[in-house]
Amino acid sequence: MNNPAHDLLAKFDALSARLEKAQAALGEVVFGQDRVIEETLITILCGGHGLLVGTPGLAKTRLVTSVGTVLGLSGKRVQFTPDLMPSDILGIEVLDESPDGKRSFRFIEGPVFCQLLMADEINRASPRTQSALLEAMQERQVTIAGERRALPAPFHVLATQNPIEQEGTYPLPEAQLDRFLLQINVDQPPYEAEREMLKATTFTSNPQPSQVLGAEELQEAQDLVRAMPIGDNLIDKVLQLVRMARPGGQFAEHLRWGPGPRASQAFSLALRARALLRGAPAPETEDLIALAQPILRHRMALNFSARAEGLTIDALIDRMVEASL
After folding, report:
1. Do you know which PANTHER family this protein is assigned to (predicted)?
2. d(CA 144, CA 323)
3. pLDDT tens profile 35-76
4. Which of 24, 27, 122, 178 lies at 20 to 30 Å from 42 by C-alpha?
């Protein structure tokens, strides 16, 4: 007789081992960014979208393309510019004329019809173009000329943003920021990692990633994340942390606006995804501590007085985590 619990545990062990290989494969081509790789994989395992923020030259583009290769996802890249139009992302209907003179509309799919879309420098496009992604990110579909068109499954957006070059950019609206499961800050690599990268990428042999998982296996992993248990005590800590990050909460004197219920949902999924990556059958408090910054930093804003004091978002989140534990 089949034991459902035993079958689920066997699937957990198999997928956890495969994900460990995927994580190692990405580490071989993106040097010194283990945390960034982990947070990117967590985003994908949750079925969500990620915002990669970092200065140029930190391998954000290489990471996204490598993730597509390692996970077996069909990927496309869009370079966001001020003159980019929504139709350049979603697609457009054109009028065709057949040899017998009959005319009909034909839809040409845009790059959004893929499994992994890289939105490069997303804050360079106008708000109108940025908003074209909202329906795709939330509903996994687009509406063009009144007709709804489903996107491939799985569907993920990994967007990049340059935090220092702000000329000619448009801040992402709060509604769109909230659609990103994690904001993944990409920092400069440590000395030894940069030294290894220098040796590996400036000679004739440049390491290339290979596929480890397929799209179907990834969807199995995403289903497994949602089937994993999470303790009531940890749920209470999540809710306490999210609620104290809102205006009216314990840290209201520092905040202009704070996270909504999507932050709690992001925590619930991301905690379990990180546990799966660690090979743990259920998430623990250490997962909450590790994920607080990437989940909350783009869902809250400091007020003027807090910025004048030199307080940063990440430092405030650390204070809230300490207060919630």
Report:
1. MAGNESIUM-CHELATASE SUBUNIT CHLD, MOXR FAMILY PROTEIN
2. 47
3. 999 999 999 999 999 999 988 878 888 899 999 999 999 999
4. 122
The answer to whether 77 touches 89, Cβ cutoff 8 Å, is no
Torsion sign, CA atoms 161, 314, 35, 281 = negative
Dihedral pair phi/psi, residue 167, rounded to 5°: -70, 130
What CATH superfamily classification does 31-201 receive?
P-loop containing nucleotide triphosphate hydrolases (3.40.50.300)
Task: Label residue 185 left, alpha or beta by phi (over 0 means left) and psi (-120 to 50 means alpha).
Answer: beta
Render pLDDT for 119-164 as a digit per residue (tens, 0 to 9): 998 888 888 888 888 888 888 998 887 888 899 989 999 999 887 6
Fill in the DSSP letter of residue 1.
Answer: -
- In the predicted structure, residue 3 carries a pLDDT above the cut 70: no
* pTM metric for this prediction: 0.90
How many residues in total does the chain contain?
325
Contacts of 90 by beta carbon, 8 Å cutoff, 6+ apart: 110, 112, 132, 136, 142, 144
The domain spans of the chain are 31-201
CA distance 165 to 162: 6
> 199 — phi, psi (to 5°)?
-70, -35
> In the prediction, which pLDDT does 147 show?
84
